[in-house]
Amino acid sequence: MHSTIADVATLAGVGVATVSRVLNGHANVRPTTRARVLEAIDALNYRPSPLARNLSLRRTHVIGVVVPFFTSPSAVERVRGVATALARSPYDLMLFDIESEERREHAFQLFDRGDRSDGLLIVSLIPPDDEVERLRSGRLPVVLVDAPHPAFPSIVVDDVRGGELATTHLIELGHRRIAFVGDKSPDPFRFASSRDRTRGYERALAHARVELRPEYVREGTQSHHVARSTAIDLLRLPERPTAVFAASDTQALGVLDAARILRIRVPEELSVVGFDDIDISAYVGLTTVRQPLFESGRRAGELLLQILAGAGQQLGNEHTEQLSLELVIRSTTGPARQS
Amino acid sequence: MHSTIADVATLAGVGVATVSRVLNGHANVRPTTRARVLEAIDALNYRPSPLARNLSLRRTHVIGVVVPFFTSPSAVERVRGVATALARSPYDLMLFDIESEERREHAFQLFDRGDRSDGLLIVSLIPPDDEVERLRSGRLPVVLVDAPHPAFPSIVVDDVRGGELATTHLIELGHRRIAFVGDKSPDPFRFASSRDRTRGYERALAHARVELRPEYVREGTQSHHVARSTAIDLLRLPERPTAVFAASDTQALGVLDAARILRIRVPEELSVVGFDDIDISAYVGLTTVRQPLFESGRRAGELLLQILAGAGQQLGNEHTEQLSLELVIRSTTGPARQS
DNA sequence: CAGCTCTATGGAACCGCATCCACGGGCGAG
DNA sequence: CTCGCCCGTGGATGCGGTTCCATAGAGCTG
Is B331 on the interface with A (CB under 8 A)? Predict the structure, then answer.
């Protein structure tokens, strides 16, 4: 087995307290004593147990990251940002992939007792009310990414505006029959962003006095395949849309697939705009609304580190940081044809 | 603060040992007593501290995953597999992204004291000898993914064969001027797979009695950009290759970029084959050697769980599992032109 | 009915570290 | 020279569980 602090103390002929002081760089240890202790540590190849240390200090040096559908490229990008932010800190990253409601329950359960991690980063998920309650009552710092909530600081983008940006672009290209493919709104995971993007879509249409047709608004899941079959439905409508705004690039790619299957040319016969600007998008030339995914994770990580460092008071819980969006026009959007 | 097991014991009018027995579902607790305890637990909204539990049990219920360049799509896919394997287990996932040698040092340091995690999964990385020593001397179970090592069980593919598969495909299409773009071989991270793929490439050439030209073998990094500029060099050679085998899809995409920049048509003037079959590959129609990335992570996770469950003896450390490879022919490879 | 076994339960030690508190000795000040 | 203070140090306690061991009582056997 490994040696303990007591072994070191015995070998060095000192007390455990002194060893602990040496380990933690405390003052008030005579140089000769320190040397003896260090020697003993070396001789025994002693390494302190982080576990015991944590229990004693009531800190874990762990940051929990709760992320739904780690599957999705955008989520991965965000986690990468978090990992980068944490790289230079003493904190380690505990990853919780939530792929079902039950798992979500589990993850929050794990964390509400605050001694599993020192802080929590929740990505693209609005915690249910009872969890909010528990998280607040504990003193566990929480930062939200891509999900606003009055109770916690968050890093977000203006999804409504993003939806407007995309839709307005299509309107300006002359499109009037513009469909929307998004997520089911009050879904069990409570994704917030898709809902807001829908609102942006609606607003842009209203602003341009374009009629909103309910049959053009479809909601499915983030999945590529679901979006594809949804889009096939859409493109088989008697009066089919000339443009589609998808609430995520993954879904937009599904729409492109659908167009390919139905032999509908893009952008001549159909314009498609996505959201996120994930890696693939540049390859396939997808027009999309870029949001800084990596950056959102990095900022959230940094914010949490700041709070952990004691800046909690100054920041306050209503601290919300908004990152900027940008429309990236590529080759899947073009002018509406005369018809 | 949170209530402790002692609070529960007091409220229920029993001893802490009994509460512990109830918590852990031990037998020999009278039903009425059990009920009283459960009632107290409920009243206090008590949750046991995993931390203290771990210290006492000398288990952490954490599996550490060390992965270099979490950036890369293939690494992500593997981690997803691990996450899936662990989802139904009581183990949590601690993620260590290694982007520099220093970080690697840090990660291994963290783990060699076994009480940070119960098991370690090392992805695409061969641990340095001194770490092997420490890991072995501790009783920390280790499973390697995409990296063989005699000291640990591992999940691998036959990279040599993969290299042969890709190269032979090109040879059969009539290509003779076949270049290779891979990683620098004895790199600080000690990636193993690229080296073996190089050997497969060499073997296939030798077997077909095609001359191996040193100037056709280039080594850079996993990065897309590096591969692109490497490929540009390659394609500007006086006698430029008619086909390129890239050691990863990421690199193959860089080669495709290079071809686009130089206005070299694929596959008419240049055939490109990659390795991995990451998501994007299907989109861009890249011919590639598919390896089960997700599956490798899942299998490794399961293997580690088995070992943790006590199957360590039967399996032995020399246990190596080889997953199968498959050549996926898409549209970036075609017959060599008569010249 | 004595003696024994088995069940239910509580007390206390332990996991490995941090730290409060007490204490002894050296040293400066009066 | 003595008093008090501060420095260096060690013992004991706490963090919040688990579990060994001792014990009391119930039930059973002869």
Answer: no
